[in-house]
Write a structure and sequence with these properties.
alpha/beta; 11 strands; binds 3-hydroxy-5-(hydroxymethyl)-2-methylisonicotinaldehyde; 9 helices; 38% helix
């Protein structure tokens, strides 16, 4: 397998095991060169800590993009997660064009909400900007909340295959070529991931552990990106990423003090074995 270079654009939450502090080690462990563009620096993530600081890096993006253009730096994949502002999403679109190799995979995790609500930093303008970014993506990785905000379809916790197909269809009509929809649960105790592409919809179902943790969407998206760039099909990459995420949760549940993220580091070797 050829040595590939991935760019990931998301925030650095200094403490909290999400976004960049998850993406960089996981994608690197998958054997890929991982370049980073931090969208913002926060003292912690915003899901449960009080009084976190946030330094937005939007205004640094044009000069960084221009420098990379001058140096002819190009990427095999660009994977975006939690971003800092509406303006930044526009700059990300420009960098995705200028820094992409012709075969570049554009992977967008809209990372803007969960459990039917947007994260505190985001509003309707941000959703509209994210819709534009998703329209340009090869692969989008929303959860049900994000898919519902992006498509304008009402959020539901109790749904059937028809509802899931409607979300995926609308995301594809918007322009996303492939949809990897996470947290799709049709039965109690089970959850899974739907992959929707030109071939239709496929579903991978697995155990749903009772505990949920912050940052597991980032663990999934990072492992998915790593597996995909290592030559796995979209469906195989989704299965590998889902199994790894479940293992990270299982690895964390016994430690009651560890509420803010999952202990993904001590499971990295299993992920690597899956990719061999
Ligand atoms: O895991 C998504 C995420 C990333 N970054 C920050 C967050 C969140 C979710 O709340 O707050 C800063």
């Amino acid at each position: 397998m050829q040595y590939k270079r991935v760019l990931t654009i998301q925030d650095i939450s200094c403490v909290g095991q999400c976004s960049m502090t998850v993406a960089l080690p996981i994608i690197s462990a998958c054997g890929l060169e991982t370049a980073v563009l931090p969208s913002a620096v926060l003292s912690t993530h915003t899901g449960g800590f009080n009084g976190f600081t946030c330094h937005d890096l939007t205004e640094d993006f044009p000069a960084i993009g221009a420098h990379w253009e001058k140096e002819k730096i190009k990427f095999d994949a660009v994977y975006t997660g939690y971003l800092g502002s509406v303006k930044q999403v526009e700059y990300v679109l420009q960098i995705m064009q200028s820094a992409a190799k012709s075969s570049c995979k554009k992977i967008v995790d809209p990372a803007m909400g969960d459990n039917g609500k947007l994260y505190p930093a985001f509003n309707d303008d941000y959703v509209a900007a994210m819709r534009n970014l998703c329209a340009k993506a090869d692969i989008v990785i929303p959860n049900i909340t994000e898919a519902s905000f992006l498509t304008g379809v009402a959020y539901k916790t109790d749904y059937d295959e028809k509802y899931v197909k409607e979300l995926c269809d609308k995301l594809q009509v918007m322009g996303a070529k492939t949809v990897v929809l996470t947290g799709v649960s049709y039965k109690k105790g089970r959850t899974g991931v739907v992959v929707a592409d030109v071939a239709g919809l496929q579903y991978y179902e697995h155990e749903q552990l009772p505990q949920s943790y912050h940052g597991t969407g980032d663990v999934f998206a990072s492992a998915f990106t790593g597996a995909l760039l290592q030559g796995k099909t979209t469906m195989a990459a989704a299965q590998i990423a889902a199994n790894y995420t479940v293992q990270c949760i299982r690895n964390t549940v016994e430690d009651k003090e560890h509420w803010y993220g999952v202990k993904f580091e001590t499971c990295l070797r299993t992920l690597q074995k899956e990719l061999e």
